[in-house]
Amino acid sequence: MSHDKDTVTHLRLNPDDVGQQDAQSLLDAIQSDLRYEEVIHGCLNCGVCSGSCPSHRFFDYSPRIVVQTVLSGDAEAVKGMMDEYIWACAQCYTCAMRCPFHNSPGGLVMIMREVAVWRGMEAVHRLLKPYGRVLLKVLSIGNQLTPDMIQPDFFPDWGPKIPWSSTDLAIKRKAIPVYTLQVTTSAWRVSPETSYELYSIYEETGVFRLIEEIDPNLYEVVADMVEDLRDMVESAR
Amino acid sequence: MSNSVIVIGGGPAGLQAAATLGNFGLDVTLVEQHDVLGGAVAQHQYQVLMPDFSSGPALVARLAGAVQNNPHVTVVTSASIGAVEEDQEGFRVQLEGSHPHELQAQAVVLATGFDHFDPRRDGKYGYGLFPDVITGAELEEMFAKGPVRRPSNGEVPQSVAFIYCVGSRDRQVGNTYCSRVCCAVSAKQSIEIREQLPKARISMFYMDVRTYGLWEDTLYWRSQEESGVVYVKGRIAEVTQKAGQPVLKGEDTLVRGPFEWPFDLVVLAAGMEPSQGTRLLSQKFHVDLEPHGFVQQSEPMRNASLTSRPGVFVAGSASGPKAIEDAIAEGDVASLAVMQYLKTKVVV
Fold first, then answer.
1. A44/B236 Cβ within 8 A
2. Domains in chain B and their CATH numbers?
3. Measured between beta carbons, which residues in chain A are less than 8 angstroms from residue B253?
4. In angstroms, rounded to a whole number, what is the distance separating the alpha carbons of residues B31 and B14?
5. Cβ of A72: how many Cβ atoms within 10 Å?
6. What pLDDT is stored for residue A7 in this prediction?
7. Between B343 and B279, the higher pLDDT residue
8. Chain B residues with a Cβ under 8 Å from any Cβ in chain A
9. Among B32, B127, B117, B135, which residue's Cα sits nearest to residue B80?
10. I need a labelling partner for A89 at 20 to 30 A (CA). Which of B66, B123, B194, B288 fits?
11. What is the predicted pLDDT for the residue at A12?
12. How far B124 CA lies from chain A's nearest CA (Å)?
């Protein structure tokens, strides 16, 4: 599929930027994000965000320093932060709840992370490694987590019922009186047509190109899957 | 007909305005909603005033005496303002209270003052939850009653923290302005606490220290040099409680990074907001408010007391946060403007 230039020029993340890691272009991407003016109004340097921040308490991470560094315009420093520093944020948004300027340092970090992912930065290769299975689910059916991913030992923080929940899945899901939820390999029933449209979106927006950049092995699996599904849907039409 | 003026509000600004107008022979009625005169100074029994450490009770006695002993000033306490009408002869104001009656006046001075920000509205300070977290006004009341003690157990505090900018300079609570006096008042209070507690650790948690003009060395520097008060740059993120002690959580933005720091007593420097009276009477007299909700000074470069409505004047913290000395000065500024207004007004 070819992408129509008029369609992609106003997309926030330009597919042509995948892999582009020049420091100034990263900072430009952050500061030209639609949300940027909403999340950063300036900074009083008061420290309420860091004082509120659970990560600041335990790691070398301060939302105030993130905001100040971005405002300083030091592109190299911002790029340096995108490699490891900003990934300590838990995205709890307590900073945004308390900032007297109504900034959202967590929102700024979210933009920086999205840019880092979109540009396929080294940190992202590292950080996405443990999430191969989740990524595959997102790419194939748009779900992050599915019933068959629940393992007795995987989610201790979900409470003591998790071992029980992971057994006899098919029967338990059948007991849910909602037809679309009576499945185990996806969170809800996803029709092939839905996946078909999803793949078109991924392709048009450059998501597939991004996956190819950051995880070639995963991309190979995805590419096969996409081809099979497209053949199936198109021959059924 | 006589030139009569209603001054609404019996705090420092209103008392000064009423006394000055009375001294010039105008027929003044001073209306105060509470049963005592003196405004916040009397209400919270301020003993020692910022910036000059002069006596609060002596100030109230002098200002109240000046109106009570003035034959041209009628003082009405425990009264509120009902309906207000304006016609060619001036304002007709219905007075409500134990003796309701109608007042007529050619000019009105709004000296309706401020309310302290209620820190319950900003849950992160634990005010109302932890007994040892008090406001600056409550500390003044404590000074008036006797030595400073922890409300929770009556013990002598070994450590005292002041938290600046509570309810000020904060979009989250809707007050984006600086309340001007809290930094200097907190410094004054820390100096007073040091006199009582020579060994206590006294820490001030600030975003900026705004001890304007001449208060810089007389209050800010003095609190450090003479009283050993420590200033930590970092706005407090939250107050929790551990083993019966308030714990301040924040970031020391200049030196040490994150901290969780227990104190025996925590004083919130709660800021100033337009009082209920200021909000209500600005509506009754149809004067414009500025964007923060205080009475708009229509021509501050001409005279600080002018409002959007001819014949209605403002004095003191009804038009914005200010120190007692400035409120008193504005009482005179308003008196001058009232006299100029009455002189040029064509009386039919």
1. no
2. 4-113+275-344 (3.50.50.60), 117-271 (3.50.50.60)
3. 45-47, 50, 64
4. 9
5. 10
6. 45
7. B279
8. 124, 165, 169-172, 207, 233-238, 249-253, 257-258
9. B32
10. B123
11. 59
12. 9
